[in-house]
């Protein structure tokens, strides 16, 4: 692989991963069985602001990047792409995806969302161009001395509870996604990582 091919490969992986990530979030939303904590938060905020889900994703991501400043975290090109592209991919996907009625189809959407999120995370994180805005918040708190597991749990429980209070959808899908996504990403990431990419500080969860 030439020096020119390597950044092209990385950029292609980042773009494909972020597009797939937005599509997978749309599958999770359309399944209607409950979403992951950040999407529950997104749904709650969208319901009170009139913004689309994708617009809330962008605003939230940019706000989190501002929090990176006192935490002394440095974004990469992939970090900025994540903040700006996942939201539009989510909104576009929601316009083309049907809303399944039968429970079996909804379960299929949920399963596809887990698989898609894992592959998307492997492509995006595996390119080594920086963590997502939410992951940078966790690593920033870790650098301040808070254990990473505690930082992650506090953030995700906090946004889940806030999103639920605002009207976001919590359900069995929330639990199933939480149980499945770690192992799924753990399987996908090492198989999709670019050979010379820096390891992710948070390899078992999406950004």
Beta-strand residue percentage: under 5%
The percentage helix is over 70%
Provide the succession of SSEs.
HHHHHHHH
Distance between the termini: 28 Å
Q: How many β-strand runs? A: 0
Give the class from helix and strand content and strand pairing. Answer: mainly alpha
Shape: globular
Rg estimate, integer Å: 16 Å
- Quaternary organisation: single chain
The average pLDDT value, as a whole number, equals: 90
Q: Largest sheet at a glance?
A: none
- Uncertain parts: none
Helix tally? 8
Structure description:
Helix content is 74%, strand content 0%. With 207 residues, it is an all-alpha fold. The longest helix is centred in the first third of the chain and has 27 residues, at 5-31. It is globular and about 45 Å long. The chain starts with a helix and ends in a 15-residue tail after the last helix.
């Amino acid at each position: 692989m030439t020096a020119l091919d390597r950044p092209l490969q990385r950029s292609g992986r980042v773009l494909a991963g972020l597009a797939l990530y937005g599509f997978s979030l749309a599958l999770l939303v359309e399944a209607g069985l409950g979403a992951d904590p950040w999407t529950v938060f997104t749904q709650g905020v969208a319901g009170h602001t009139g913004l689309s889900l994708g617009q809330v994703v962008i605003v939230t991501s940019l706000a989190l990047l501002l929090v990176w400043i006192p935490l002394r975290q440095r974004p990469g090109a992939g970090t900025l792409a994540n903040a700006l592209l996942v939201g539009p991919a989510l909104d576009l996907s929601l316009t083309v995806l049907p809303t399944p009625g039968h429970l079996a189809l909804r379960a299929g959407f949920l399963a596809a969302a887990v698989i898609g999120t894992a592959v998307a995370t492997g492509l995006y994180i595996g390119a080594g161009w920086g963590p997502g805005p939410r992951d940078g918040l966790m690593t920033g708190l870790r650098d301040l001395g808070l254990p990473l597991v505690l930082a992650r749990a506090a953030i995700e429980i906090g946004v889940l509870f806030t999103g639920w209070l605002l009207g976001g959808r919590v359900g069995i899908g929330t639990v199933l996604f939480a149980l499945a996504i770690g192992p799924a990403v753990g399987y996908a990431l090492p198989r999709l990582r670019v050979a010379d990419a820096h390891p992710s500080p948070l390899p078992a969860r999406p950004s």
